Amino acid sequence: MKISHIEHVGIAVPSLEEAIPFYENILGLKCFAIEEVADQKVKTAFFQVGQTKIELLEGTSPDSAISKFIEKNGGRGGIQHIAFAMADGVANALAEAESKDCKLIDKAPRKGAEGLNIAFLHPKSTCGALIELCEDPKKCN
Ligand code: ZN
């Protein structure tokens, strides 16, 4: 498996509307995209930091993974996942992980925000962190 860089860090927030001004006014970043990913029941906002992005995530339904994360975290947001850009594509990385007995949340790549192929590894196999494998936007998989 070959990781080219950290594609993004996913941060759960109770409200994008309340969180975006902190990232823009205090950290001086610029939100360049807001997107709803219906099948993940989230709304996302993106900020570029070097070649890495910050992905803010707000749940759009009480049964979304983000809403559950915030509920478990006492109603506060926090870092929810880290996404690596895969130099050789997501499907190859998943096949390799599975061949090494890593549990997968996604058996096959699916479309995430920005139309990129993504897949999640299961936290049971990653010592607790939620890890997303992401298509490198500069390459085609
Ligand atoms: Zn993500």
CATH class: Alpha Beta
Distance between the termini: 14 Å
What is the H/E order? EHEEEHEHEEE
CATH superfamily: 2,3-Dihydroxybiphenyl 1,2-Dioxygenase, domain 1
CATH domain fold name: 2,3-Dihydroxybiphenyl 1,2-Dioxygenase, domain 1
**Gyration radius over CA:** 15 Å
Number of E-state strands? 8
Strand line-up across the major sheet: 2-3-4-1-5-8-7-6
Count of separate DSSP helical elements: 3
Calculate the mean pLDDT score and round it.
Answer: 94
Query: What form results from the Cα inertia axes?
Result: globular
Notable characteristics:
141 residues; alpha+beta; binds zinc ion; 3 helices; 38% strand; 2,3-Dihydroxybiphenyl 1,2-Dioxygenase, domain 1
Describe this structure in words.
With 141 residues, this protein is α+β, with helices and mostly antiparallel strands. The protein has a single domain (3-140), classed as 2,3-Dihydroxybiphenyl 1,2-Dioxygenase, domain 1 (Roll). It has helices at residues 16-26, 65-72, 90-99; strands at residues 3-12, 31-37, 42-49, 52-59, 78-86, 110-111, 117-120, 131-135. The chain has an eight-stranded mixed sheet with strand order 2-3-4-1-5-8-7-6. A hairpin with a 5-residue loop joins β6 and β7. The protein is globular, with a radius of gyration of 15 Å. The structure holds zinc ion. The site of zinc ion (ZN) has 6 residues, from β1 and β5. Residues 8, 10, 55, 81, 83, 132 line the site of zinc ion.
